[in-house]
Each structure stands twice: as structure tokens, then as C-alpha cells.
Design a protein that fits this description.
The protein is mostly helical. Strands 3-5-4 form a three-stranded mixed sheet, with no helix packed on it. The protein is globular and about 65 Å long. The chain is built from 18 helices and seven strands. Among the domains are: 178 residues, no CATH class; 90 residues. It starts with a helix and ends in a 5-residue tail after the last helix. Helix 8 runs parallel beside helix 14.
Length: 430
């Protein structure tokens, strides 16, 4: 067999890649070769919306921001098939990050501005040092006025879906902007991604998802890890889910009323402290975490008002900074960026976590969710998540009774409750 120079160079490149510990997946390579035919925008490659998605599970997506009247995201069956392959696809995706083949998606540009920021998502709790050279705040002096989505961009998006990272080649940013983070355009970004995932085996992939679950830096990270463990490594999910379902919750509405109507209005520091201690004693330690997060959210608004970034200025002024200093012993220089991650959560986060568990089969998980449901009195949002999970598993009588009791009283979830009741009454679930 004869080889020309191009063949020899290509084989040397492949040999170098294999030496770094990975192997090409023929099925993924075949799917990647179909990506140039992509003609519709989707999550991670659009100028009209932002959000998160896990393609293999139909109902797992969340829209962040979008332009009114924009074209809705389309599900790419090719990308879905790539993401389904999980860790097996990673080495091929890394190989194609700088694949400059253009897709059929029309060139993307911002309505008012474009930024080439090389955004690179990572877990801030499991990785203390930020990756060097990415997540830049500055605008390049010379930059394109549009960007064509490439095969490498789509590989970047697919990789993020596999490893539980929000890797967006392009995304909409209010107001009227587009943020481009293309490993095809940016050698810097491409290098960082390859360095982080070049040795990703199935075992290491499983381990990283468990780390994200046990030490998340956001609700999105936790739910994303839950969804992916349930899909890729279901045997690992049950003990983690059971532990998480037992985490204490707090009521954000009760906290908001207490902070706004009581704490802020009390001028005496001594009396504030007494009120705070009594509230925590009556409601439980988790409510202390909820108050802390509420104060940090208010501090963020406070800072924006102080820096004249709010128009018109806030009418009602809250001194969240003073309460954080007094009640939580923060330094006088405390800012909204000091907000901690807390282990407890509010009931809405619990509801979304139950949805993230999805169709994962586990009798123990079902029983734990039923225990939660049996204690609900008027939290219809949480109840709907529980009932959707428990439907057809021996709890339909309880589900019907709850819906019949709450539908006349529910302010926001009446339609959802009617839908649950209709399904519970259907022949399929009798």
C-alpha cells in the first residue's frame, strides 16, 4: 500500500491522539460527518435564545432568555444520537472541536452587538482555580460581524450535554447581543476543552457526574447531574437521590414575608436578633439558609441601586448588608458576589429535582417521594411534581383526593391539578 504526504500526516495526528489515552468511536465519527447538514438552530447554537437541554430526554430543557417572536429551538436527531453515546463519543468530539466545516444554519449575528468571550462553564465548587485564558470580559478590537456555526461548534455543544456543562457556541444575551464561544474560532478555548476532557473514560465520566451531584455550585448543576446519572449510570443514582430527597426545605414565601415585613422594619438590632432566633427556632435550621440567600438577593438589588444601574431608583430601600453583617457575621465589605452555596433548598427546587429524576425506576425513590407528598397541605407546585412521579404506582386514590381538595383553592396550579386529576381518572391508571 502506498501513502502520500497527506495520508502520513493524518496518520501521525491520529497516532498522537491515541497516545493521549482516547480512541475514536466509529459510530460517533459517522454521526459527526452528518453535522454539516444541520440547518435549524437549537439550544447552544442560536442568536435568539439561551437555555439548557439534555437531548436524550425529551422533557429536559429550560429556556433562559429569548427574543419575542423568535424561531423556537429544534431538536437535532444527529446531535441527540451523539449525546446518547456518552463517554464513548467524547474523544471523537474533542478531535473535531476545530472542525471548520460549515453547517447550513444561516450566519448568526447580534441585533446590536457581538462578544467573542470564550465562555467556559465549570463547577466552581469542585474546581477552585478558573481555567486560564477563557471567560474573558473584554471585547476584541478586531472581530467578525457574524459567525457561521461549524461542526466544531456543534461538537462543543454535544460535549457539554454529555459532561453536564453549559457549552454554548452562541447564545442570546439581553439586550440585543450575541455571545460567541466557538472552539473553531478560538484556539484558546479549543485548547482548554481538550486539556480538561482528553482522558475521559466511562469511569471518570461517572465520577465527575457524582461530584457534580454531591457538590453542585447551582441548582442547574445538581439537576443536570441527576438527569445524566439516571440516563448513563442508573445504578449510581438511587443512593444519591434518596439522600438528596431527605435534605430539609424552607418556604421562600414565608421567608420573604418575614424579611420584608418584620426584619427590615425593625430598627432595634437587639430586637432583630431576637426575632431572627425565634423564627429559626419555630421553623427549623433550613430557614436560616433561606434568609441568608434572600438577603444576598436583596443586596444585589441594593448594589445595583447604589451604582445607579437601576432606573428608576428603587422606591423601597432595604439594608440587607447590615443584616448579613449582624446575623451572619459577614465582614463590612460583604458584597452580593460573596453569596454562598447552601446545602438546604426551597420546596420549588425540590419539585424541580423530582422532575429531573424523571422516569428513573426505583421503588425506594418512589417511597421517599410519597413520604414528601403525604406531608403536603397546600404546596401545589411541589405536589404536582410528586403526583406526576407517583401516578399509576398505587397512589392514585390519594392523588385524586388531593386534586379534588386543592383545585377550588389553588391560585396558580389549578390547571396543572386538573390535568393530573384527568390522568388519574383515566382508564390507563385505574
Amino acid at each position: 500500500m502506498r501513502f502520500n504526504n497527506s495520508t502520513a500526516i493524518a496518520m501521525c495526528c491520529l497516532a498522537a491522539l491515541f497516545c493521549r489515552g482516547g480512541s475514536l468511536d466509529p459510530k460517533t465519527e459517522s454521526l459527526i460527518d452528518q453535522l454539516p447538514q444541520t440547518a435549524q438552530i437549537g439550544f447552544g447554537y442560536s442568536a435568539q435564545f439561551s437555555g439548557v437541554q439534555f437531548l436524550p430526554v425529551t422533557n429536559v430543557y429550560e429556556v433562559g432568555t429569548l427574543v419575542l417572536g423568535s424561531q423556537p429551538p429544534q431538536r437535532s436527531e444527529v446531535l441527540k444520537s451523539i449525546v446518547e453515546r456518552g463517554a464513548l463519543a467524547v474523544f471523537s468530539l474533542l478531535r473535531h472541536l476545530d472542525d471548520a466545516r460549515e453547517t447550513k444554519i444561516p450566519p448568526i449575528s447580534g441585533m446590536m452587538w457581538m462578544s467573542f468571550a470564550d465562555e467556559y462553564d465549570f463547577n466552581h465548587r469542585t474546581r477552585k482555580a478558573s481555567p486560564s485564558g477563557v471567560n474573558r470580559d473584554t471585547f476584541p478590537v478586531s472581530r467578525p460581524s457574524s459567525h457561521i456555526i461549524t461542526v466544531g461548534d456543534l461538537c462543543f455543544v454535544a460535549l457539554g450535554q454529555i459532561v453536564n456543562r453549559s457549552f454554548n457556541a452562541t447564545r442570546y444575551q439581553p439586550s440585543g447581543g450575541v455571545v460567541v464561544s466557538s472552539p473553531t474560532y478560538s484556539k484558546r478555548l479549543c485548547t482548554v476543552v481538550r486539556a480538561d476532557y482528553r482522558n475521559l473514560t466511562q469511569g471518570r465520566h461517572r465520577e465527575l457526574l457524582i461530584q457534580d451531584f454531591e457538590n453542585p455550585d447551582s441548582e442547574q448543576r445538581l439537576d443536570g447531574a441527576c438527569v445524566r446519572l439516571g440516563f448513563y449510570y442508573p445504578e449510581a443514582l438511587e443512593p444519591l437521590a434518596l439522600k438528596q430527597l431527605a435534605v430539609p426545605t424552607y418556604d421562600i414565601f414565608k421567608i420573604n414575608d418575614f424579611v420584608r415585613d418584620a426584619l427590615y422594619r425593625e430598627p432595634s438590632q437587639q430586637r432583630r436578633k431576637v426575632m431572627f432566633n425565634e423564627f429559626i427556632r419555630s421553623n427549623g435550621p433550613a430557614f436560616s439558609d433561606g434568609i441568608e440567600l434572600q438577603l444576598f438577593e436583596d443586596l444585589d438589588s441594593e448594589e445595583a441601586d447604589e451604582q445607579h444601574r437601576v432606573s428608576p431608583p428603587l422606591k423601597e430601600k432595604y439594608d440587607a448588608r447590615a443584616l448579613l453583617i449582624q446575623l451572619y457575621k459577614f465582614d463590612t465589605s460583604v458584597s452580593s458576589t460573596d453569596k454562598p452555596y447552601v446545602a438546604t433548598w426551597n420546596s420549588a427546587e425540590l419539585a424541580r429535582f423530582i422532575r429531573a429524576i424523571g422516569d428513573y425506576r426505583s421503588f425506594k425513590v418512589d417511597r421517599a417521594i410519597h413520604d414528601i407528598f403525604s406531608k403536603i397541605t397546600d404546596d401545589d407546585y411541589l405536589a404536582v411534581s410528586c403526583m406526576n412521579r407517583l401516578m399509576g404506582k398505587g397512589y392514585d386514590g390519594e392523588i385524586r383526593r388531593f386534586c379534588q381538595r386543592r383545585i377550588p383553592q389553588s391560585k396558580y396550579e389549578a390547571d396543572e391539578l386538573r390535568g393530573v386529576l384527568s390522568r388519574a381518572n383515566s382508564k390507563h391508571f385505574r
